[in-house]
Amino acid sequence: MGIEHELTTEISSFIDYSGPKISYSRTVQQGLHFQATDLLFSSEVQSIEISSIEHDGVKAFFPVEQSVLPFDPFAAAFYFLSRYEEYTNTERDRHGRFLAENSALTKSGSLTVPVVDHFAKMVLEKIQMAFPEVHGQLKEHKDLFTIDVDNGFAFKGRGLRSKAAILNAQLKGKYAEAKERKAVLAGTLQDPYDNYKKICEYVNDPKALIFFVLFAERGENDHGADPGLKDFQEAIKEMSKGAEVGIHPSYASNDVTGVLEAQAEQLGQVIGKSIIKSRQHFLRFDLPTTYRRLASVGITEEHSMGYADRAGFRAGTCRPFKWYDLSNEQKTDLNVIPFACMDTAYADHLGLGPEGASTKIKKVLGHVRQVNGPLVSVWHDRVLAGRDEYTGWWKVFEGSIDLCRS
Asked: By three-state DSSP, how is residue 214 classified?
């Protein structure tokens, strides 16, 4: 909120202070009083059932009485931002990911609403009503368009697999596909996924665009272009001219020590600068292990905070926040950048076409603008190619950019 403040646990100091003051405690104190629940006074992480109420059109959690608000906004914010529920619920999907359906936000029907930002707005309004001389506002952030470069190229950089694919297409009578593959490999036709310059030109703001590059050896779930391929490295350099470049740590990097460090270092060598931004491939991360590992190799900005199968605010906010290591009860300098919308969530998991996805994105944008917040979206190289089942999705990307700027 940008309000200068001082925290104290000394009741005498609080009572003696004659200026604007708020209290956060179990018992009513002087000033603007917010009744506290038990969560922030505990150092244990244990399974808890949280309830919600409706307040000003938003689901609010940790209801209380004798308070300026009918719920505890500080406990609620901490619960969602710390990802408390991901420590206490151990059920995971086949990729080791926390399930969206187990989230309290999903269960309450408020996953697509940045509730924590609403809580902050409510607190600010109460402060300013009680103390008109106090000025503050929710901090603004830029809309952000992020691209997962899972493949790099559709045809190039596949070695013997490219030749096998041509032969397979010919045997199946797909002569147009075989001809296209041959032309790309011969250098007479641009690879259909190589739209990186086009993306940079349309966004036209290097601070609003990030490419997360899978720079890894091929594996069962890692199908990117060969990191040693000159054309791939040139494409990455082209990305870095019009955008930020971050690492997309491979699926295997979660399981093998040293792989993440090597991938980040090698990608940094290509663009000539250290890699400080990251998003996990498959959004595969587990707290606190993954975040600690990322921080240890110099990552300062983490972009995996979202779900693969639906839109919404996994941590309840549309704004960046510092990760709190709940197991160690320790604040960190790792910035978490949550995203709200992802093309493959709409197309592959929810079965939406371009028109349906555009409608959903517009609705999410409306929610973030209610709290003066940013829209952070995720797109994929194969989707933006606009081929086959993804025909028309480039227009969704364009439309989202235009909508954010309107």
From this structure: coil
Give all strands (DSSP E) within 179-326, no chain letters: 209-213, 244-247, 277-278, 301-302, 321-325
Whether residue 96 is found in the same domain as residue 207: no
* The residue to which tokens 């697999």 are assigned: 161
Total number of domains constituting the chain:
3
Q: Is the pTM of this model over 0.90?
A: yes
Q: Are residues 305 and 182 in the same domain?
A: no
What is the CATH classification number for the domain harbouring 395? 3.20.20.370
Answer yes or no: are the C-beta atoms of 39 and 80 closer than 8 Å: no
Q: In tens digits, what is the pLDDT along the chain, a chain of 406 residues?
A: 999 999 999 999 999 999 999 999 998 888 999 999 999 999 899 999 999 999 999 999 999 999 999 999 999 999 999 999 999 999 999 999 999 999 999 999 999 999 999 999 999 999 999 999 999 999 999 999 999 999 999 888 666 566 666 777 677 777 777 787 788 788 889 999 999 999 999 999 999 999 999 999 988 999 899 999 999 999 999 999 999 999 999 998 988 889 999 999 999 999 999 999 999 999 999 999 999 999 999 999 999 999 999 999 999 999 999 999 999 999 999 999 999 999 999 999 999 999 999 999 999 999 999 999 999 999 999 999 999 999 999 999 999 999 999 8
List the domain range (segments joined by +) for residue 178: 157-190
90 three-class SS: coil
- On whether both 89 and 149 belong to a single domain, the answer is no
Residues 217 and 185 in one domain: no
* 343 and 209 housed in the same domain: yes
- Indicate if 176 and 301 belong to the same structural domain: no
**165 and 75 within one domain:** no
Q: Using CA atoms, how far apart are residues 93 and 99, in angstroms rounded to an integer?
A: 7
